[in-house]
From TrEMBL:
InterPro entries registered for this protein in UniProt: Chorismate_II_sf, CM_dom_sf, CM_II_prokaryot, Isochorismate_pyruvate-lyase
Domain of life: Bacteria
GO molecular function, one term: carbon-oxygen lyase activity
Lineage: Bacteria, Bacillati, Bacillota, Bacilli, Bacillales
GO biological process terms held by the UniProt record: chorismate metabolic process; salicylic acid biosynthetic process
Annotated Chorismate mutase domain residues: 3-94
Protein name: Chorismate mutase domain-containing protein
Amino acid sequence: MLSEIEKGLEGLRVKLDSIDEQLLDTLKARLECCIRIGLYKREYNIPMMQPHRINFVQERAARYADENGLSKEFLRNLYELIISETCRVEDIVIDNSENRRQEISSSLVDQKRKREELFNGGRDTNTSN
C-alpha cells in the first residue's frame, strides 16, 4: 500500500516519464529532419558542415537559457551532443551509402522500440491497495 507521499511522488514521476517520452520523440523528429536536410545537401552538392548554422543554433539555445532561467552551460553541452549526432547522420546520408542509410533507419526504429520497452516495461503500473 502506497502512502499519500509515495502516491504524490509516483504521480510526479509519471508526468516526468511523459515529458521524457515527448523529449525523445522530438529528438527523433529532429534527426529525421536532419536526414532530409542531408538528402537535400547531397542533391545540391552542399557541404555537410555549415558553421554559421551551428553558431545560430548554439546562440539561440543560449538566448533560450537566459530567457528561461536555465544553465547556458547545460544547453551548450546538450546542443554539442545533438549537433555532433546530427553531423554524423548527415555525413552518412551525404555519403550516399544505401547500407548506411538503412543502418540509421534501423537504429531509429530500434531506439524507439527500446524506449517504449523502457517506459512501458520498467514501471510498476499496479497501484491497487
